[in-house]
Amino acid sequence: MKAVVFKKYGSPQKVLTIKEVARPTSKENEVLIKIKATTVNDYDRSFVRGKPYLYRLMYGLLKPKHPISGMELSGLVENVGYNVGYSVKKLKVGDAVFGVISSYGFGTFAEYISIHENTVIKKPDKLSFEEAAAIPHASRILLKWKLNLKYITIMIQGFFQMSAVLDKGKTLIKDVVEKLSVYLR
């Protein structure tokens, strides 16, 4: 399969190359996804550049631990982990899915990825693959602006969860899926 690979940190124009790499296989609790769409965002740029330097402490001091960048995707489930139908319980072959995978690694700048089933959810039929791939990162920015909160953290993985700390220190839990499903109707 083809993937966008980098072996050292630097300017994306200089370090990113398209290479043929081995197609991953799904392990227990993982799904093999044929990626239909992904995104490029500020995190990907920082990851490839290795700046801020804090990223290097997390993802490889001198060179990247994950040679394939990318953290958001949409695509089709092509296979599920060992014991087909036993390990993976939430998804089946043929399901259209989307999500952000950064809690389990990187690698969406490729044709396929095998990743934990909790990193993706089923894609609503009304969304194109491109629209679905853009939701995880863009929704964080939108909700931060829309809710006008001082501090907000959104984890969009597996099932959407959002926690926001208000100015007065109170914690507000919102169900992002409910908000998005109302918007998509």
TrEMBL record:
InterPro entries the record matches: ADH-like_N, GroES-like_sf, YIM1/Zinc_Alcohol_DH_Fams
SUPFAM superfamilies (UniProt xref): GroES-like
Protein name from the UniProt record: Alcohol dehydrogenase catalytic domain-containing protein
UniProt cross-references to Pfam families, sorted A to Z: ADH_N
Segments forming domain Alcohol dehydrogenase-like N-terminal: 28-125
Protein's organism: Aquimarina celericrescens
PANTHER family: ALCOHOL DEHYDROGENASE RELATED, ZINC-BINDING OXIDOREDUCTASE
